[in-house]
């Protein structure tokens, strides 16, 4: 989750509870195995309501809090320890809307579900498919406050769809199987939706049910290398040994990649064995989903790097496509 909206009573009762028990927790997970990342510390902008544990990311109400008169939004930030510039700086927004305890417990739907929430997770790594699958936590369905402020209500959740991919453990949504971004069709990638039913058992044996559509966005990770689409050896014939800079040579060379363009930010395309410095690649990437599965297409045109005369009857060089950020990647070359 990277954005939350929470309705919360702000009074002596809630302060006495949530000054000791966190109303939530902001955590950064390692992309390699989705376990808790230990190389971050947590910070919250200065305010009169909340405080954060810089080590655990747990969020509490301050002992000296000042009540809110209107909804307020707070930004939580995770900073890399030791100033590691190679790590990203994640952010999350938390919006709190004040209301009375009676209003809170009377609004049954907001006891079942967050007022507003976005669930975002990375796809599983390709190497993880050979290991024993472990369910991954996507997020909770409702605020922790409901358990303590309205304890007389019993909640039961049930998945109405998506049970092949997801499962519920009390109020926690988990993955049931490894999620592969590339195996999903292009309409599902950012629109995975599960429908959850929440049944509330009230004091007088009365029941109330609510349903909510929850959108889950799966983010593509860079776990596939470029693949050469056609042959590995190309023969280009010149009708004139004289050439000029930026003139094209032969047909375009096509590579494909199952990952999105955004995930392929670290791919490189270079010329090897060009002893006379004659050529250079001009590569452009775009995405296509005409097969129902989104993928990247990289079109490389070889051009002359300078003006000159080709004096050799045969001149051989190699175009290499590579992505060093992928553990199992093998460079793809064209001669």
Structure, described:
The protein is mainly beta. The protein folds into three domains: 106 residues, Immunoglobulin-like (Sandwich); 94 residues, Immunoglobulin-like; 108 residues, Immunoglobulin-like, CATH 2.60.40. It has four helices and 23 strands. Strands 3-6-7-1-8-14-13-10 form an eight-stranded mixed β-sheet. Strands 15-17-20-19 form a four-stranded antiparallel β-sheet, with no helix packed on it. The chain has a three-stranded antiparallel β-sheet with strand order 2-5-4. The radius of gyration is 27 Å and the shape is elongated. The two termini are 46 Å apart. The model has no long low-confidence stretch (mean pLDDT 84).
**Helix/strand/pairing class, anyone?**
mainly beta
Contiguous runs where pLDDT drops below 50 for at least 5 residues: none
Q: What share of the residues does DSSP label as strand, in percent?
A: 35-45%
Using the coordinates above, name the CATH class of the largest domain. Mainly Beta
Q: If classified by CATH, what would the architecture of the largest domain be?
A: Sandwich
Task: Describe the global form.
Answer: elongated
Number of strands: 23
Radius of gyration based on Cα positions: 27 Å
Main β sheet profile:
8 strands, mixed
The helix tally amounts to 4
Entry summary:
It is found in: Membrane. With 335 residues, this protein is mainly beta.
């Amino acid at each position: 989750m990277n954005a939350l909206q929470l309705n919360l009573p702000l009074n002596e009762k809630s302060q006495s509870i949530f000054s000791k028990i966190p109303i939530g927790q902001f955590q950064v997970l390692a992309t390699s195995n989705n376990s808790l990342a230990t190389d971050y510390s947590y910070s919250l902008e200065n305010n009169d309501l909340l405080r954060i544990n810089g080590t655990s990311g747990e969020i509490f109400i301050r002992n000296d809090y000042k009540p809110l008169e209107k909804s307020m939004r707070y930004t939580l930030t995770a900073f890399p320890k030791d100033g590691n510039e190679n790590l990203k700086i994640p952010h999350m927004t938390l919006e709190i809307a004040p209301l009375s305890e009676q209003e809170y417990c009377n609004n049954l739907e907001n006891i079942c579900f967050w007022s507003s929430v976005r669930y975002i997770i990375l796809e599983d790594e390709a190497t993880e498919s050979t290991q024993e699958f472990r369910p991954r936590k996507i997020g909770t369905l409702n605020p922790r406050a409901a358990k303590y402020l309205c304890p007389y209500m019993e909640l039961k959740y049930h998945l109405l769809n998506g049970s092949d991919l997801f499962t519920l453990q009390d109020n926690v949504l988990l993955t049931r199987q490894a999620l592969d971004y590339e195996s999903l069709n292009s309409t599902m990638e950012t629109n995975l939706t599960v429908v959850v039913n929440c049944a509330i058992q009230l004091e007088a044996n009365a029941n109330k049910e609510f349903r909510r559509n929850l959108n889950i966005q799966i983010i593509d990770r860079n776990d596939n290398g470029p693949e050469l689409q056609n042959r590995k050896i190309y023969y280009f014939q010149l009708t004139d040994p004289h050439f000029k800079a930026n003139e094209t040579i032969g047909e375009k060379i096509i590579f494909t990649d199952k990952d999105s363009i955004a995930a392929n930010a670290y791919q490189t395309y270079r010329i090897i064995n060009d002893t006379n410095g004659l050529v250079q690649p001009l590569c452009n990437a775009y995405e296509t989903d005409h097969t129902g599965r989104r993928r990247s297409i990289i079109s490389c045109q070889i051009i002359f790097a300078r003006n000159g005369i080709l004096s050799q009857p045969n001149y051989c060089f190699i175009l290499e496509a590579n992505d060093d950020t992928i553990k199992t990647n093998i460079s793809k070359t064209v001669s």
